[in-house]
Amino acid sequence: MKMAPRVRFAPSPTGALHVGGARTALFNWLFARHHGGTFILRIEDTDRSRSTEESIEEIKAALRWLGLDWDEYYRETERFPLYQEAAERLLAQGKAYEREGAWWFRVPRPGTTVVHDLLLGDVAYDHGLIKDFVIRRSDGSFTYNFACAVDDADLGITHVIRANEHLNNTPRQILVYQALELEMPEFAHLPMVLSKERTKLSKRHGATSVFEYRDRGILPEALINFLVRLGWSCGDREIFSKEEMVALFDLKDVNVSAAVFDEEKLLWLNQHYLKAGDPERLGELLREFLMRQGIVSEEEAEAIPKAKLAKAIELFRERSETLVELAEKARFILSDRLEYDPKGVERFLTPEKGPLLEGLLEELAGLDESEFTAPRLEEATRAYLARAGHQLKEIAQTCRVALTGKTEGPGLFETMEVLEKAEVLTRLRRGLELIRQGQGA
RNA sequence: GUCCCCAUCGUCUAGUGGCCCAGGACGCCGGCCCUUCAAGCCGGCAACAGGGGUUCGAAUCCCCUUGGGGACGCCA
Length: 441
What we know:
Rossmann fold, Helicase, Ruva Protein, domain 3, 50% helix
């Protein structure tokens, strides 16, 4: 029986959590959860000049938003004595030396260090190519390659799962383990996530931070599902709930070549989760989104009935890829301030449609409020149209523009249902008014 | 420049020597449905980087070339 694994995600708090880091965190989290192990969040803030408290909080918030919970939490700046003791030991043993105030690790030469990578196999490094490196800066702080190895050993990390860009650091860390006679973890270097320009992800290439995607209306479950497929696969499957990922995830199904972050596919997944999710829950996400983006005030957002938001989700999720789009499309039901599409008005609110629209208005006015359900509305409308000798398609768009200001949207009768009787009559009358104005002009 | 990693449709990938004149998904194109836009359904286009080996047989193994990416800090 193997020991339960202990893995860590070790970001440096020098900025927002970006999607590449999120992917690394996800793989570590999945590995831990799949094997019933421990997932540790360790903040690598040994570079005090570049680390900020804001970044730490944002990274934690982003991980929580993604649903990646950690079991243990550490900050390297709080573990100073550990590094100090280890560094002094190396100095005393002559495995490190001081020069110009900094402490340097003495790389044994000649020699070779082989990284036994779980994904890549053996990778050999000639010590002739590895320069001595600083372990303790002249200001007394410790460097990454040193603190990282000491920490991983001290925390009993069993598997170091990190991005491929760290592969070349690994021999140095192995040297530290050996010099300190520490037990070594397994290593697994993940393929990089590349921008669509095929370069390392950075702020230069548009949205890269997790929260930027959130603010662009991406659902956390969509982002997680998208990220897990960057380097991991399970036959032909594309859709995975978090529980399914945990059950299915295995390092042996992780590949080794870099993956490009394809936003089109993210958008498709996002719409998938929009369509598949519980309307009430998504409705609440929409409420938060409306608030956070300042689309409506906090008071307004809180005043919107739960049922109405759920209805907005149901009506618009088949025609929206993101919450941004959905919020925009659903505006006409969340607010009575209509914005008419000029082209739609010009094309459909025309004089010859007047009489038919007016007739429909009268017909609907005769209906009881309780009859404002999509099926009943359709029945009544079709009956009226049949009597008048017209077809639905002759009036549908006119009606839609009057009700929503737009030429596209959900089914006409569903739209009427969600608007309810009073609002439908008001807007239809306003539409008639616009027709008359158009005539006069 | 040096070192390291990688190489299947535009993109994410399946494939682990014969089941592959290469499968799925996104995107794209066409059709159906239809009160609009979508969604859905059906169909289509599209790849084993090149060259050498190994083998009865290579997308799968080896070598070279080319291409891509990453690392070369008292950053992580």
